[in-house]
Specification:
The protein is built from 21 helices and no strands. It starts with a helix and ends in a 5-residue tail after the last helix. Helix 1 packs across helix 7 and helix 1 crosses helix 9. 83% of the residues lie in helices and 0% in strands.
Length: 473
């Protein structure tokens, strides 16, 4: 299956996730209110934080190791069985710590019903085995299964969640999607691989899982823990603002992440084959796609920030506007880091580089949390994320410069920034129009899309733009 088809399936998968968010987000923020929305945000981030310890780096190592197996069924079974065994062990240990934390941490104990529901999500998340299907590049199944479950989820939320008192039901339904997905995957995966205790080599994977897992855990100190810290030193309302602010960013970044996830197993194979020509070709395509879309989206979200937050979240979320405008800049920075990590560092098994970068970001994040979050709330958390991600980018840029593996195309970055200025001008012109916010957003979006088409198809004649619409040049 080629990269383009995999990318389409993965984009469908990612878009389905964020279409669900776009459908339910305005509804949930209005029904639950900013405070209850903040409580749910705290619980979700706490569960996710513990999930990182349960799964360690299996989401990365698993894809890489399964991809390298190719069509060797015997080796695939051995790798799968070893990784699953390790994952079950770490999940049992993490679950025990999680239960203990419920009784020891006041904030968690006060929300015990939600925390116990989260425990089921923590356990079943280990049994999703999505890393396996990504490793064999079976994105069609992942997409179709996920979309079907999400449709059920949308219908369930709209049916059963009608007031702020239904926040427990909402979280139960959210966790239920993970449980249902895991059950379906457990049944379906038997078609592709079996589990066997014979030939299990746990020791072979402890080190890479710990290294990569440490990377994800330490990275969470400025991407996940900052939300937990915000909830502890500030209010649930500020957490609600922060989650509303990050929603647009995560939706858009998720689309590019879909492309990175597709490229990861393919780049692992190319690096194993020492195919340097296609490695560079794929990296160039990745940067072109990122730069084409990042600048117009950043300009649109910064200038039209008030309109976007009002439309998506409703009244009472004005405190999310500035944090969103700060965070959206990271589309470019994090997008570049994703290319470096998913297409250069991880496929080359340079897990120590990942660990060093995450330590850098975590140290900066901890210091910034202490300085900014208590006084500035959601804005402070946005600053923490921005500064931390920039420090990680600086680390990777230095690493690439010293290793001479690949040169970040700085000239291309500056060039796209220059031709991206009209996007901001268009949005500024539309933002002052005395019409309803929907018309301001729609008009600026249409005009920006028009400029985008003219710029890349007729002025710059960007090759990847033609490839995206199926025209070879």
């Amino acid at each position: 299956m080629d990269i383009k088809r995999n990318f389409i399936y993965n984009v469908i998968l990612t878009l389905s996730t964020y279409v669900v968010n776009l459908i339910l987000f305005p509804y949930i923020t209005r029904v639950l209110g900013v405070e209850q929305f903040g409580v749910i945000g705290f619980i979700r981030q706490t569960v996710y934080f513990f999930t990182l310890f349960a799964t360690l780096g299996i989401g990365i190592v698993g894809v890489r190791e399964i991809a390298v197996c190719g069509d060797d069924i015997k080796r695939r079974t051995q790798v799968f069985s070893s990784l699953v065994t390790l994952s079950v062990i770490t999940t049992l240990i993490t679950s025990a710590v999680y239960v203990g934390a419920i009784f020891l941490v006041p904030k968690m104990h006060d929300n015990m019903p939600l925390m116990l529901i989260g425990l089921s999500q923590l356990i079943f998340n280990t049994l999703l085995f999505e890393w396996f299907f990504r490793g064999i590049e079976h994105f069609r199944y992942i997409s179709l299964c996920s979309i079907s479950i999400k449709i059920i989820y949308i219908i369930s939320v709209l049916t059963f969640v009608h007031s702020s008192e239904d926040y427990i039901i909402y979280f139960a339904l959210t966790s239920g999607t993970v449980i249902l997905n895991a059950i379906v995957n457990i049944v379906y995966i038997r078609k592709w691989v079996g589990f066997s205790f014979a030939g299990i080599r746990i020791k072979n994977y402890i080190s890479p899982l710990l290294r990569t897992g440490s990377y994800t855990i330490i990275t969470s100190m400025y991407t996940t823990f900052n939300v937990i810290y915000l909830s502890i030193v500030n209010t649930d309302t500020e957490v609600g603002y922060y989650f509303a602010a990050t929603k647009i960013y995560t939706i858009i970044l998720g689309i590019y992440t879909a492309f990175s996830n597709v490229m990861f197993p393919r780049m692992s194979q190319l690096i194993a084959q020492h195919d340097n020509k296609n490695i560079k070709h794929n990296l160039d395509i990745s940067f072109d796609i990122l730069l084409m879309f990042a600048y117009p989206i950043i300009a649109f979200c910064i200038v039209m920030g008030q309109e976007l937050i009002t439309l998506l979240s409703g009244d009472g979320y004005e405190g999310a506007i500035v944090p969103m405008q700060i965070i959206i800049v990271l589309l470019l920075v994090v997008g570049i880091c994703q290319i470096i990590v998913m297409q250069i560092v991880i496929p080359r098994n340079e897990d120590n580089t990942l660990l060093k970068a995450s330590i850098m970001g975590a140290c900066v994040g901890i210091v910034c949390n202490i300085i900014f979050v208590k006084e500035l709330g959601a804005i402070g958390s946005a600053i923490v994320l921005l500064v931390s991600e920039f420090s990680v980018f600086a680390f990777y840029a230095t690493y690439l410069h010293k290793s001479h593996i690949f040169d970040i195309p700085y000239r291309k970055i500056v060039k796209h920034a220059a031709v991206g200025i009209p996007y901001a001008i268009i949005c500024l012109g539309c933002s002052v129009a005395d019409v309803h916010i929907v018309w301001r957003l729609a008009t600026s979006a249409v005009l920006c899309i028009g400029y985008f088409v003219v710029l890349h198809l007729f002025i710059l004649k960007t090759p990847v733009a033609y490839r995206l619409i199926g025209i070879e040049r």
